[in-house]
Amino acid sequence: MQKNKNRAHPSPLSTPGFLTLLILPLLLTACAVDPIWEEGQTLSEVSATELDQAKALAASGRSAQAAERYLALAAESEPPARAQLRLKAARILLAAGDTGAARKALAAIRQSELSAAQRELLLLTEADLELLEGRPREAIARLERVRHRALPDALQLQYYGTLASAERLLDHPVAAARALDMIDTLLDLPQARLVNQVSLLSTLSQTAPERLDTLAGEGKGRMRGWVEVLRLSERWGNDASALAREYRAWRAAHPKHPALPELATAYVNQLASGYARDEVLTVLLPRGGRFAGAATAVRDGIEAARAADASGRRPALRFVNSTDPGAVRRLHARAAKGGADYVIGPLQKASVDALSRAGRLTVPTLALNETTHREGHASGLYQFSLSPDDEAAEVAHKARAAGLRRALVLRPEGRWGERLARAFSHQWQGLGGILVAERTIDASDAGYARQVTELTRNTAADLVFLIATPDLARLVNPLINKASAGRLPVIATSHVYSGGFERVRDRDLVGLYFVDIPWMLGVGGQGPLSRYRMMAGLDNTPDPLARLYAMGIDAYRLAPRMEDLARHPGSLYPGQTGGLSVDASGQIRRRLSLARFTVDGPRPVEVEALRAAR
């Protein structure tokens, strides 16, 4: 029998209700911008039947068709309805992840036809678009033109949420935390405030210790208090009674600070279960084929996370074989009918593609891969992947955050190297970086060493993005260091780190920077779900599937939280695979850790280390 509690709460930006919430407060709030229009009046000359049909399409998850209907109506309408309809279409397309179509819809809006209210909404929408396309600086530039203090609360929440996400993407955790602090002043519901405050502490936890020391010692007011709560939680987190006692004492000494009574416990316990009692978690994973090994690693991570869940609210686990992509929609429907509260999976891209075309999913679903198409996806579907492209883009973000601007790309021949180089270059140039040159490396060519040396000795670049396996990195890294006299920092993706380190064999990797998931770097200690414990103490042993264990851990913990993350702008969850957030299209975004090879193995470092390396 199907449970009555089965439901899907898609990202607020994917629902027509959110569009009303987004637009109406701006138009109805007397203290905001003017002229003030109520949307019903704005669209009074538009066919009500046509509008209802567009709303129905959006509600059923057919985002592309809904946007097309709104755009068709816009083409037949006069201002101010024309701009309103195009804005509605753009928001729907953004929620579906179709940024190209959203940009086209926004480009068709004439500035001369906009009311003051619509100009503000256009800027907010453009900021979200820039953020979704990985251009946080451009997003902030749009936000700087918004008269945010004149906006009603609903749109101020969007403003500060986008700002927090953009600052975090630029590796500015303190600035992101300040934006979340502003969100706290706008929220009324205690649960929403608690989610936001936990995200605020999680964001601050990514700050360099010396920067936190400065905030704690010299900061004032609310921000200083948030740092003190973070430090107190970290110090007493392993002793629940001591934490409760110390936090009560802190709140008594700071009665005017907005930190909620349950904040310290909630922050410490955020890695515990987020499930309600008697819930069911269905996991769609292949048991055969080329993805069977990856599926086993993910399953092991899920089961380990459930075993470590001491909340007393562990969900019932149901594993379903999803080897055949053609059967995935039927399997998902059966899981929903059978009482699943959440679904994790599928894993294969073909299966995610099939599920994404379902229109609307009745059960919140965390796919373990990304779709291959950009024309939209089912509402209620969230996409979580360990994409190599994301790692290349993350290198670009961290290098730009360190103030580096001119990049040289060295890659092996073949599709893999070309793909990562393309992802890096797209993000790098989108962030205002300059691509000095890109060269392929063929270690089987006797002249490769001379080519690398000449290129890095004469280049005007201030960093090298190296796409390489460990073996290739051992050959190339010393050449670059020698040719540039150590002037050029070399940064790579996690592909240079196999998970093991041998002091003699890997000495040529020393000094090389790379991005990776926190779990691989031992961030967070040696708890029951640490890499050290899960790999039975063999954390110096290479394992090509190791990162998928961490993905399984995060999938178990994300499933009951992904809707909350989507509902609360700027929210962050400190996962094993990175700092996790949900963007406007339901994509799980990861902020990776930066590490550097030392003589004793990889060690996490702050972005400032890249600046110092210059």
TrEMBL record:
Keyword field: Cell outer membrane, Cell shape, Lipoprotein, Membrane, Palmitate, Peptidoglycan synthesis, Signal
Superkingdom, natural source: Bacteria
PROSITE patterns per UniProt: PROKAR_LIPOPROTEIN
Protein's name according to its UniProt entry: Penicillin-binding protein activator
Species this chain originates from: Marichromatium gracile
Organism classification: Bacteria, Pseudomonadati, Pseudomonadota, Gammaproteobacteria, Chromatiales
